[in-house]
């Protein structure tokens, strides 16, 4: 909580007056943070990150025992070939011959797409892997190279392994696609609900002609149970209200026989948020009336558009007479995920971690500011680039009175500073010789020749000292 208040203060935000919602991932500590934040700023709407929720959903689907075992075995294959320089190179050559352009990806639980990338990369390499382990050299060491590990060969040649890889892709891939769609900056709460419902529909309509086994049906049943459980947790009253406020989904969102999805429930949620925002009784009464007419598709709420936020903003009606317009625009403006801050944390993990350095956050922040300042200063002072050697160089300026005046201004105290163009005119590259017509390449070659000669002299002197020490040792032994 203190970190959030400090960050808001540094951004110049007073009392979080411009904050409409707070979105975080959903562990216990973040739930507590959202509760404390809302207790202090009562108008703020707390939300769990939708992308994190979908990632949890995919993870629970893949906890099905056979699917989990297949993922672990796939990870073992990737680990072996990524760690083996020789066999990793052989697999790349075989994959290239089979026109497989993607590489093997390893699973990482903290990354949203890592699991599906793992199984898809393994599936794409099925033929190259099978061809590679079928070679005799893969089973026994030869020419100084080790063989492929026996457990890796057993996994690749296991007939039950590859069907489970395909099943994981068929079940989990639609929900991973939803993560990619919902982490957009333009995504809103209604889009998140629609995309999740679309992925659930794909799960219900899976074609089982290619795999109508008891194993796949059991896995599908497990996935449906996980989706139902996670949907009940993720679809909060605010999310359900946002789906109702999508002009093309107002009828679909109302299910009179299901608690939480009735028109009465949507009106209740709307009025609760209006109370949080401090709306007056007159505005709340108009808002309740607008909800009723909007649900019935009556004027002025006819029509609709795929872009829900754009449709509400384009309505040419008075906000004072119909406050539902301003209310819907505010709800649909909420960002349903924390994807951008997660990308920032991932980028910082590459530099700010115990393996990289042990600097404190404040010290690291100061160093970053110093570095940025130095980079900008270097850009400002950088000379203009010289023209290519193929172009005809302009003749050097003659030593005139103006030139001597420039030199005097450079060396004299309390003189007028040189302009930028004057500084660049007088600047001389450090590797160029005194002769203005001398090529800079010859200057570089001269420096390297001098360096080589110095190293040769040092090598000769070192060998001479070694011979002297050796002869002295033999002389003492003879004595």
TrEMBL record:
Any one GO CC term of the record: nucleus
Region (Disordered): 378-422
Keyword Zinc-finger belongs to the record: yes
Biased composition (Low complexity): 399-408
Any one GO MF annotation of this record: zinc ion binding
Subcellular location: Nucleus
Keywords: Metal-binding, Nucleus, Zinc, Zinc-finger
Keyword check for Nucleus: yes
SUPFAM superfamilies with a match to the protein in the record: Ribonuclease H-like (SSF53098)
Protein name: DUF659 domain-containing protein
Source organism of the structure: Mycena indigotica
